[in-house]
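ok so heres the complex, two chains, lmk if somethin looks off
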Amino acid sequence: MPQPVRAEHVSPGRQSWVRCENDPGPERDGIKQMPDFLLEIGTEEIPARMIASAQQELQRRVADLLSRERLPAATEISHVDTPRRLAILAPGIPDAQPDVSEQITGPAVSVSFKDRQPTNAAHAFAKKAGVEVAQLERVTTPKGEYLSAKVTKRGRSAAEILAELLPKEIASIYWPKNMYWRKPNERFVRPVRWLVAMLDDQVIPLEFGGIRASNGTRGHRVLFPGAVVISRSSEYSENLRNAKVLCRAEREQQIRKALDAATRTIPGARWREDPSLLDTVVNLTEWPSAILGSFDREFLELPEEVLVTVMRDHQKYFAIEDVKGKLLPNFLAVLNTDGDPQGLIRHGNERVLRARFNDARFFWQTDQKHPLRDRVSWLKNVTFQKDLGSYYEKTLRVQRLCSWLTETIKQKGIAVRPGVVHKAACLAKTDLTTELVKEFTELQGIVGGLYARVQNLDRGMPDATRQLIAQTIYDHYKPVSAEDSVPRSVEGAVLSIADKAETIAGMFALGLQPTGSKDPFALRRQANGIVKAMAEHKLPILISDLIKLARETYAGSVAEKKFAQGTNYANALGAFFRERIEFYLRDQLGYAYDVVNAVLMADADDVVDAVARAAAVSEVRSSADFASISVAFKRIKNILHQARETGKEVSSAVDSSLFQEEAERKLGAEIPEIAQAVAQFRQAREYSRALTEISRIRPAVDAFFDKVMVMVEDERLRANRLALLQTLLKEFSTIADFSEIVTQGK
Amino acid sequence: MAPETFLRVLDPKPYKVAYVQPSRRPADGRYGENPNRLYKHMQLQVILKPPPENIQELYLESLGALGIDLRQHDIKFEEDNWESPTLGAWGIGWQVMLDGLEITQFTYFQQCGGVDLFPISAELTYGLERIAAFLQDVDSIYEIVWARDPKTGDMVKYGDVRLADERQMSVYNFEMADVEKAWKHFELCEGECKALLDGYSIVREKPQVSQRDLGHPIYDKKRFPLLGAYELCLKCSHLFNILDARGAISVTERVGVIARVRALAVGIAKAWVDQQKDEPQADKEESEPAAEQNAADMAPATP
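and the predicted structre for the whole thing:
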């Protein structure tokens, strides 16, 4: 749901504009002084997915325009959007821009008068300012005395400005896909069929797409086919409601109510919440209602995933479940009309769904004729990517990568079943050859998992093993989005990571990495998935190893010959993954950006470790000790930077015999002592305790900067002090680079 | 796309036409076993150039004329943009949903044969089997009553007319079409089409050319058979679909073959626009009924 945009356009500079004496009274041109402005763009049906963002953009554009033109609305701007209209209501805008007076400076007095008579220069200036010569004033500037005049610019009427400027704003709305219908250079999402632009009861002479604005809108296509005249802009919503058109919030409420009411007819049943489906049907209706339909119980033998996909993605129906969450043989359809008294609509929808389910069942049964294990070789004929070969080749590579990964994590004490991963990797892509996936591509992976569950995978395989393999296949595309969960098992996580890493490695090696907003192979999303799966399953896999091993799976392949030469594969991928980890820590786990920077500056190779460090640093970040350490570290970095810039030497090791000050001696003694403790805790991944140790260095550091001058003349002293600082920085930045932490007020 | 659509939308002359055409999509065949899927179905194709402002209202009225009372049903226009990559044609529009059933594809053409259209045409394709099944309230397309004997009242059902076609052509398209020969046919049609297009470009430069120049009898530009070239292009498009149904085209090859057919379509569209330019204004053929018996839509199934 778009939030109502706050009216941010109340011009802050309003007071600086001087209202003139000849200010019009409350009435001008028959409009009250602060009329309500209404704009409605009436179109043929806008695609549901585009309505919300276009509405927000239009509202922002109108608000900006009003603010820019000094016509701010008195209260919040509101909107109405339906499939056939985008409308904006700006209550109480000035009927005209305020007049403005301005003092303009003219020629010097010395050249304006000759013998006390005005010269041509004075006359010309008076003419330009639109005043008599006698009305000219004088100003004294550092450069001398000049003529000056007060010029009044009369504000233009709101109607005039809106008629002139709105068409450009309407034309500028961004659409993911637009069209032309009248003139090739005139584009919009669908043909515009009517326009309403009014200030109270007055029509603004606005024109767009060959349509002239009027006060006539249209109601619901079927329920209110007649003309609808808007008497006053403030009555717009009411007029629409009478014409069987509801605004978004009302439609959503009405749909929820209707779904509830229809569901209540089945005891104990409830409809499955589905925010994106709800959003879609809200955007497909002007006057919604809902019906309850049913289908034959025998279809429940088909997997729920298939039934729900058919209902949701193909028919936009809501599924209904019983108390235990089991699917019921019913569905809810949202209509764009006020009801179905004779049950004709229900009957029609049931027939369509029956046909769809029949189709799905036909595919399911056809697919069983060839079990997944027979389909592995079929993958030779399915192209993965034109330069990377077939899915068969991909399968072999993913299997190899899986073996490495399972071995690695097993050695580090993670319980994993390599045989399960291996078998699942072998079958994971075979569902691409099934009719069901060809029909419902969004079910890839899931269908493979479902088939593996019911098919004989290997002679004598225990049922539990088969179920785990099936689940591993089922989950291996997960997480498909930032919101999606990771695979349920470690085996699933490993396969998911290997599958994605192999793709990313191949694409980067080909030089097809994402650039800017272009990411046609969704590599960023896949890398996000890898990071999330590693983090949540706490898999001790180093990104650098993963990158290297994924690349090695291509060794000796035909694909390898196509790989781009001279690209810095490892560096590019390292940076790419670092960004993905950053995204995960910041956007998914909610850590502050400076904490994330600090943590990743120290190390960005181990995801699990980075998450733990971010948690620990986040906790201490606002403490006084760390605020102080952060300031000190920034200072140290600056000093070292400066030293480098000016070519000052830094000793390779600290020589304690060169210490002169007590503070220096103390810091020199504490660094190795505390650093050792820090290193031990870091080794044991006890980051909170490590940080507590680090905080102990603060008094010594503070005292050092208090008492010791670093950049002294004596070269040996200076080099030794720089070395001391460098050691401090190095030894205490292994958990996070504290200089990255943003401190309050410093 | 029948020539009545493909070629007629290219030029600027206003044009309105409605005709029934069979649409063939080999990969959609289901051996006659699926009650809702056909390799060949009938479309009522309507072209309106330029589209009238009240086109949606006219369309809804046409449903009324078919006997569908919209006040008792649920109608929605849901985004669906049509595209035929082999013919370089695409448009913006909707699938029209009646009680959850897609009954019409409604498209504002934007490009055809790679040519930006002006004025544009609106294309309405009514799915006749679906509408008939809806009106007759039958679950299977094959149960649609096709005709009744006026004397006895005996029914002829759609299945009686079409089932054998679906069954046999599914077997042919999926199992028996000779892949090697289909490729040869493809190349032959492509070659002849290209030769015609080359011929046209000669005629275009020199309106009166000798037999020696062309290897054919003398033609003037207006009589040059671009329609013949288009028919060959459609054959290529159909052969591509058959090869696709046979699984004989890998994903990699696919792009290349589509580009080959598209090149023909684009060449024909350009030539046609050129040929029409010199047509005298008085030439009024536009209201001519166009119920071609073999205007098979060979547009490929879009993915």
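quick notes: Chain A touches chain B at residues 44-45, 47-49, 83, 177-181, 184, 190-191, 193, 221-223, 284-285, 315, 317, 333, 335-337, 340, 342, 344-345, 347-349, 351-355, 358-359, 362, 381-383, 386 (CB under 8 Å). thats all i got rn
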